[in-house]
Automatic annotation (TrEMBL):
Native source species: Idiomarina ramblicola
Domain CBS intervals: 337-399
InterPro entries found in the cross-reference section: CBS_dom (IPR000644), CBS_dom_sf (IPR046342), Cyclic-di-GMP_PDE-like (IPR050706), EAL_dom (IPR001633), EAL_sf (IPR035919), GGDEF_dom (IPR000160), Nucleotide_cyclase (IPR029787), Rev_trsase/Diguanyl_cyclase (IPR043128)
Name used for this protein in its record: GGDEF domain-containing protein
GO molecular function ontology, one term from the record: cyclic-guanylate-specific phosphodiesterase activity
Membrane-crossing residue ranges in chain numbering: none
Pfam families: CBS (PF00571), EAL (PF00563), GGDEF (PF00990)
Record keywords: CBS domain
UniProt domain GGDEF: residue ranges: 425-578
SUPFAM superfamilies reported for this sequence: CBS-domain pair, EAL domain-like, Nucleotide cyclase
């Protein structure tokens, strides 16, 4: 078909509405649900203009890009309505179209009204692949869309021109990391570092991250370990005219609900370096070391599994003698390698690895540790970098820890809550508070009061640490626990109360035990009887769509704690509200 014929054909496709969308799901793998679909436009099957690259390049040449964009949006919204789809509709938009003076204003809003799709359900994806001619005009156009209620995403982050600049100026709801950084991410420390940096930045800026192009379960597992939840790719669902309605459990790893702190594992300091086969000639390995002066060791693998490691000083020692080359040059490297290198799984905590190094007197600080994943070679970790990372974590934790109990303080608590809200995860927050603690301090003194606070901290740690639940110390007699497994919350809180009740009287004189409490001056300076200390626990399950920050969660938990304190003695109150009353009042006024 000639160029002239293609031009006429394109106009016909637009005019006669022969374009149609394929829908690819965007999945929250932490909850196993579909949060939306991306609409990918196609021309008639088998047609020269079937695929978008040719379709849009021709439209750009003909200067009918605006007409094509509107036709695509209309086709996507119409199909979305006809299929009675739920969740978000992600629409790809060329950023330069938004700056085109001939582009009709208000058309996207009119289409959303025509097809009955609320603007807040539609996500405008601005691709970074296109060179942006006028960022200031684009910024104004995006702000206009945001004011109308549409959500914004930066697509293909890292693939092209000005993604980070757009991110900083437009404050998008989503960023989508380009598939280049996802392909074989489990084997590339550089790609993992890039994605981890984007995740950290997104948490600070309250932007949700979607990763594209996931094609293998290894890639998915690696991303989930790093805290990525919103995922898209052929592994989870190919583009299809009929949208995927549910997530098949077989698509997700069996342990997809398990969350670990990637930054506290050996994986966070892994380097992906060249490895050699166990059958490689020793002379070839010597050449590798000779040519690269920075190499201190090379992993040796057999298939995908680790066979050993060959260190620079070892191979140099073998070849340094008069007959070294004659004896070893043609022998496989497995003949001279270390067959028992220090090796750990990628999810091993930094503390565990540190203990292994401490217990091994033969470990050199300049050596490498082999890191495996499901028994296969994953990378190496420099002991020097490992110790540096551990020091950084300890310094950071100590800086924000409560000086009395050494538990994480307010900053760490807020960061954990923000992360849970950002990832839209279900979690419980428990607020622990002692009843009548001030009068106890007045009678027994602050030193004795501190002993009770440290004792309570030990009880909470005893029951929660082994399950991996987070424990923080706000200050004074106030503690917070964050439960990632909600099924355990009530049972564990009841056990904490039981232990508290059984032993609290050991902090009292016998006369006060006999009296069942103490007499102390109230705030009005009047003598009042206060019963034996008891423990109030308020438990809440924040709704991430209603609690916008840790401030809202703190207010909700504080309300629940006050309700728990209304009961006589120790009590655990499970609050059913998922947002603080202040937010409820605001919503009633709107």
């Amino acid at each position: 078909m000639s160029e002239c014929d293609l031009t006429e054909t394109l106009l016909t496709l637009i005019r006669e509405k022969q374009l149609y969308p394929l829908f690819q799901p965007v999945i929250d793998t932490s909850r196993g649900i579909i949060i939306g679909h991306e609409a990918l436009i196609r021309g008639p099957e088998g047609h020269p203009l079937e695929y978008p690259d040719r379709l849009f390049s021709l439209a750009s040449e003909m200067q009918v890009l605006s007409e094509l964009e509107l036709a695509c949006r209309s086709a996507a919204m119409q199909a979305f309505q006809q299929h009675s789809m739920h969740g978000k509709l992600f629409l790809n938009v060329n950023p330069n179209v938004l700056q085109d003076d001939s582009h009709p204003h208000g058309s996207t809003l009119r289409l959303s009204q025509q097809f009955g799709i609320p603007p807040e359900q539609i996500v405008i994806e601005i691709s970074e692949r296109y060179p942006i001619e006028d960022t200031e005009n684009l910024k104004h156009a995006i702000i206009h869309y945001q004011k109308l209620g549409f959500m914004i995403a930066i697509d293909d982050l890292g693939a092209g021109y000005s993604g980070l600049k757009l991110w900083s100026e437009l404050h998008p709801d989503y960023v989508k990391i380009d598939r280049y950084f996802i392909h074989s991410i489990e084997t590339s420390s550089i790609k993992r570092e890039f994605v981890q940096s984007i995740l950290s930045l997104a948490t600070s800026l309250r932007t949700k991250v979607i990763v594209e192009g996931i094609e293998t379960s290894d890639e998915l597992e690696q991303l989930q370990t790093m805290g990525v939840n919103y995922c898209q790719g052929f592994l989870l669902g190919r583009p299809s005219p009929c949208p995927v309605r549910e997530v098949s459990p077989t698509l997700l790893p069996q342990n997809h609900h398990v969350s670990i702190n990637y930054q506290s594992t050996i994986a966070s300091v892994v380097d992906t370096i060249h490895c050699v086969s166990a059958q490689t000639r020793s002379a070839e390995v010597l050449d590798t070391f000779t040519q690269d002066k920075t190499l201190s060791s090379l992993p040796v693998i057999s298939g995908k599994t680790v066979a050993g490691i060959i260190r620079r000083e070892k191979i140099m020692e073998f070849f340094s003698g008069s007959y070294g080359h004659a004896l070893y040059a043609n022998k496989p490297v497995s003949y001279i390698m270390d067959r028992n290198p220090l090796s750990v799984d990628w999810k091993t905590s930094l503390e565990e690895v540190s203990q292994l190094i401490t217990d091994n007197d033969e470990v050199d600080i300049y050596q490498h540790i082999i890191v495996t994943r499901q028994g296969n070679y994953y990378g190496v970790a420099s002991i020097k970098n490992l110790l540096r990372k551990i020091t950084e974590l300890k310094v950071n934790n100590a800086r924000h820890a409560n000086p009395l109990t050494q538990l994480p303080g307010n900053i760490a608590i807020n960061q954990i809550i923000e992360a849970q809200l950002f990832e839209s995860k279900r979690f419980h927050v428990a607020y622990f508070d002692l009843n009548h603690f001030k009068p106890y301090n007045d009678i027994y003194g602050y030193e004795q009061g501190d002993q009770i606070i440290k004792w309570l901290a030990l009880i909470i740690q005893k029951h929660l640490f082994k399950y991996g639940h987070f424990i923080g110390h706000i200050g004074g007699d106030d503690f917070v626990a964050i439960f990632k497994d909600e099924s355990q919350t009530k049972q564990l809180c009841d056990k904490i109360i039981r232990d508290f009740e059984q032993e609290v009287t050991r902090f009292y004189h016998q006369e006060h035990i006999d009296m069942g409490g103490i007499k102390a001056l109230s705030r009005n300076q009047e003598p009042v009887f206060y019963p034996i200390l008891s423990l109030a626990i308020g438990v809440v399950q924040p709704d991430p769509s209603e609690c916008l920050s840790h401030h809202d969660v703190a207010l909700l938990a504080s309300e629940s704690k006050k309700e728990a304190k209304q009961f006589d003695g120790s009590h655990c109150h499970m609050c059913h509200r998922q947002k603080p009353r202040r937010l409820r009042q605001i919503s009633l006024q709107q």
